[in-house]
Amino acid sequence: MALLIAKWLGASDRGVLALGQTIVNLIVLAASLGLLSSARIVLSSPRWGLSLRQYVRATRPLVGLDLVVTAVAALTVFPLLSRVSDPVLVAALVIMGTAHLRSGLLREGLHGVGWHRTAVTGEFVGAAAALGLLGALWASGTLTLHTGMLSVVARPLVHQLVQTISVRRQMAAEPPGTAQERGLLGRLVRFSTPGLAVAAGMGVAGQMDRVLLGAFAGPAPVGVYASAATLSVLAGTLPAAVAPMVVRSVARGWQPAMHRYWWTRVMLGSAGISVLIGVFGSLLLEVWLGGEFAGSTPILVLLLLGGMAMASQLVDNSVNNGFGDLRASAVTALAGIPVGLIAYLVLIPRFGMVGCAVGNVLTYVTMAVVARLLMRRTMARHPAPAADEPREGATP
């Protein structure tokens, strides 16, 4: 979808939309107060006794927080970075922000109770609906910056609708929770405090590059960079889909062979996907998009390398998270923040988009190294149980 927007609207308008999405993503990471990192852990753990219904009720106030912060950013930061001041775009950003947060919280809730396939399906349905709307706008000749933003907003709205339906089905069938509801949000937030550090680290690694590139170079380079980044993100679908299963399997019963099993398959799968994306993505950028997007293959290759490091740290930290150790993920994320910020501030003014991509790689490699060191420490504290370990090649 992002590539079609780039093709049909051009690099500058693509950059404006990308900056809007980036601002929304950063606010969602902050307004979730760490629950986007910890919800699946809490709901997976029997000791919490938390039902999905209790979780849904407790997290509703976060949507109001997100609405206020997004509105302020849409009126101040967004016009400054995008060089565009438009009330329609401001309203769209506010709607997108609240829908994005709520759908994300519901998605994590479904992962936490083991409905992994349903949670992932909701995201695909939202993406398909947005893509269909975008195609209809283009075919009718009504695709503009405004209508393009509407198609972008459609994705989290449809995602939220699908997740809401799925959550209600699950709540109708689940037994009542035993957690005390009074003050529940406060307890969840306190437990999720390390998740705020995780959100900050992931924000710097995966979102701040576009913001700083926009600040130094304007929306057009952001449009080119974001198009390459969109292709590279496809390689992250496998580790993102596997991570909740790793967390849940470790939380339900740890066996040391689990890490080797998951990490090997995720890295091999991600490597294969990255090679395919590198080949076909280069053709899309250089030939199909062409023009302003020509010469962006090195950016794509660098971002794919960063994605491999991200996949490694995601699996390693999922093991830590499965033991309820959010602090390890927080330390990993915090380690990437100074590296990312320094790299972006030094490299972007001098090397532009390529410098931005190099900063992305350095950030993710730093996080991968730290995650591996912390994961080894965690495994050392949890030796093999007496029960038989899973056979090599068998699903844990």
Automatic annotation (TrEMBL):
Domain of life the protein comes from: Bacteria
Presence of keyword Cell membrane: yes
Annotated TM spans: 23-43, 63-82, 88-106, 118-139, 222-247, 268-289, 295-314, 326-346, 352-374
Main location: membrane
Subcellular location: Cell membrane
Electron transport keyword on record: no
Keyword terms: Cell membrane, Membrane, Transmembrane, Transmembrane helix
UniProt membrane topology term: Multi-pass membrane protein
InterPro entries listed in its UniProt record: Poly_Biosynth_Transport (IPR050833)
The protein's name in its UniProt record: Polysaccharide biosynthesis C-terminal domain-containing protein
